[in-house]
Amino acid sequence: MGNVFATAIRHGTTDAMEKLISQLPLPKDVRSICIKLNLCEYRARETGATTDPLVLDPLLSSLRKRFASASIYLVENDATGVNADNIFSFLGLDAVAKRHAAFTLNVAHDDWIEKSIDGMRFRSIEVPSVLQKCDLFITHPKLKTHGATKISCGLKNQFGLLKRKNKLSYHSFLDEAIVDANLGMTPHLSIVDANICMEGNGGPIYGTPKELGLLIGGADLVAVDAFCSALVGFRPYFVGHIRKAAKKKIGKMKFHPVADFDLGSDRYHLAFSTTLRYALKLARRKLARSR
Q1: Quick one: what percent of the chain has pLDDT higher than 90?
Q2: What is the full DSSP assignment across 155-184?
Q3: Cα–Cα–Cα angle for 77, 3, 226, nearest 5°?
Q4: Residue 92 class from Cβ within 10 Å (0-12 exposed, 13-18 middle, 19+ buried)?
Q5: 81-106 pLDDT, tens digit each
Q6: Which pLDDT band holds residue 291 (cuts at 50, 70, 90)?
Q7: Measured in whole angstroms, how far is the alpha carbon of residue 185 from the centre of its chain?
Q8: What are the chain's domains?
Q9: Is pTM, for the whole model, over 0.85?
Q10: How far apart are CA 116 and CA 126, in angstroms?
């Protein structure tokens, strides 16, 4: 059972982030840190779609306090419609990095190494070499609904690190591709931005923003995702990539929450239509067969 820590942003993001980080099991000797951001589209922080510089800033500040001399890399990969170099600048994340002596890194330009995995679809994947060298790998996702997978959180964030720029071909086996990405690139910590989230079937890009005002984290990636899915109204077992990641022993679905707010409140639920999801899934299958 994985511990999951969650705190409400009551007195500012800096205080909440410091409280969260103080609860997480950080290693003592850290020379290099990689933080996987969530930069899936050219969408501003107010949309809830992408990494929020106002949350990233206190995260870097808190890490820099503890690891003054560590090299910190903010990593992202090119996506189907996104150039990571451009979006670092577009969202102002390069300025945040500079303020904390950190670096932005588009891993599309990095060295890659092939790594063997016992995957659901793949027996090996290419991974950025910077992840193999770092002492602390943190995934920093946004908490969002997803039209195909129900939820997009820590596990889904590593899908963006699969080397291929156009990842649409993976969408026919998206749950398995997410699991395989995490088998090859397993973060040490998940620190979830659940401040401005996203709800609706248009997620993870074109959903509706909803402010939950939370920060969530833990060392068990599956437990953190399971907690987040339960918090926003889903049953974790019926989120395919969470269940399959647990089966592959990336983490455990059972979680022990440590929270400073009422977990029983439905105010944290995110709107989502399961009926519409299945209707669209059937329509996509029908379209694929007709081609």
Answers
A1: 91
A2: HHHHHTTSS-S--GGGGGGHHHHHHHHHHH
A3: 60
A4: middle
A5: 899 999 999 999 999 999 999 999 99
A6: low
A7: 12
A8: 2-290 (3.40.50.11440)
A9: yes
A10: 9
